[in-house]
Amino acid sequence: MTEQLAGWFVNNLGGVLRPEVIVFIVSLLPILELRGGILVGFLLGMKLAPSFIIAFIGNIIPVPFILMFIKFIFKKLKKTRMKGFIEKIENKAMSKSDQVQKYAYLGLLLFVGIPLPGTGAWTGSLIAALLEMDMKKSFGIIVLGVIMAGIIISILSYGVLGSIL
Questions:
Q1: Predicted confidence (pLDDT) per residue in 28-65, tens digit
Q2: Contacts of 133 (CB under 8 A, 6+ apart)
Q3: CA-to-CA distance for 58 and 69, rounded, in angstroms?
Q4: What DSSP letter does each residue of the chain carry, written as one string?
Q5: Angle 104-64-76 (CA atoms, 0-180°, nearest 5)?
């Protein structure tokens, strides 16, 4: 799914916006995050270092806001017609939290750092907030996880794909 969404951004925004802007936008978005940003950078012909740095920054920006405010936002939204949707998001995040609950911060690092579908900084931040983990520690661990995921995706995109294409 990430590849398809990344391809959509490349096909529809490539040539309209600078590649750096596209990488940044993609990296800000849930689901795509840094993984999609680095892939988009590769597909747009960017060098690895700028692609990685821009994707990292884009992916990290939402994290402190999620950690600090998501519980308050969800509490308010549960008082509206969005209650069912918010509960669905919470339940989905918590269904993926076993690893984090079992191994605490190491689990959070692995959850964010191993780029699998449904994992990443957005969901990791949501889980950390819902489990009431220490915000500062969680932020640091999520930063390390994003770097770890970035290294893995860079190897896959620029190394494996780069040698095939």
A1: 999 899 999 999 999 999 999 999 999 999 999 999 99
A2: 100, 104, 105, 108
A3: 18
A4: -HHHHHHHHHHHHBTTB-HHHHHHHHHHSTTTHHHHHHHHHHHTT--HHHHHHHHHHHHHTHHHHHHHHHHHHHHHHTTSTTHHHHHHHHHHHHHT-HHHHHHHHHHHHHHHHS--TT-SHHHHHHHHHHTT--HHHHHHHHHHHHHHHHHHHHIIIIIIIHHH-
A5: 95
Tokens 């009431």 correspond to 132
pTM (2 decimals)? 0.90
Q: Which residues pair with 14 in a beta bridge?
A: 17
List the structure tokens of 26.
Answer: 């993609």
The DSSP bridge partners found for residue 17 are 14
Q: Which long-range contacts (CB under 8 A, 24 or more apart) does 88-93 make?
A: 89/126, 90/130, 93/123, 93/126, 93/127, 93/130
Place of tokens 């806001």: 65
Contact predicate 96/119, CB 8 Å: yes
